[in-house]
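Example record used in the benchmark description.
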Amino acid sequence: MVRSESRRAIQRYEGRFVGRRVNCEHVPLLPAWAVGRVLDDPRRIPYLLVWRSRDDGTLQEAVRVASYSETENSFALDWTGWVEIKRSDGTRRLVRTVTHPLPRGGKVRLLVCPDCTIPRRALYGWMPGGEYTTSAQRCPWRCRACAGLRYASEGTYIPAMFRCLSYPRQEPWLPFVFTSPRDAIEAGLASAAP
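Model output (C-alpha cells):
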C-alpha cells in the first residue's frame, strides 16, 4: 500500500496535475453536425474541412469528408451512415454514424468512436505528444477520452466571488466547411495545385 501512496504523491505534487495535458479546445474538432451535412447532401459530394490557427491564421489541418459505400460485394455490410475522413497526407479513416432519438422528439446524428465504439458528438484529430507537456500530435480520429484530452475547465477552481460572473469559456476549435475546393481557394484557405 505504501508504494501506491508514494506513486500517487509523485504524480500529483501538492494536488496539482503533473504530466502531459492537452485541452480538447486546442485541437481540431470534427463535429457530428458537419458530418451530417455530408450525409444529408443529395449531391453526394465530398466536403472539405479546414482548421486555421487562431493565433496567426495558418492552415493547421485539412480533411476531405465523403459518404462511404462499398459496392464490390453484394453480401457485404450495410455501409449506410459511414463516412471516409481523408487527410492531406493520404491517411484515411472510416467512421460510422448513428441517429439517436432525443427525449422531446427529433433525432441527432452522432459519430461512433472507432476505438471505444461509443457514439459521440465529436471526434478529435490530435492527441498529447511532442516536445512539450502541452504539445499535441496528429492521431487517427477518435473521441476525447480515447485521445487522452481534457476540458480546459478540468482542474480549474473558480472562487465563489467570481461564480456569479459569466466566467469566460474556451470555445472549441471548429472547422471551416466547404462544399467546393474552389470556395476554399477564394477564401484564402487553400491553394490550387500546380
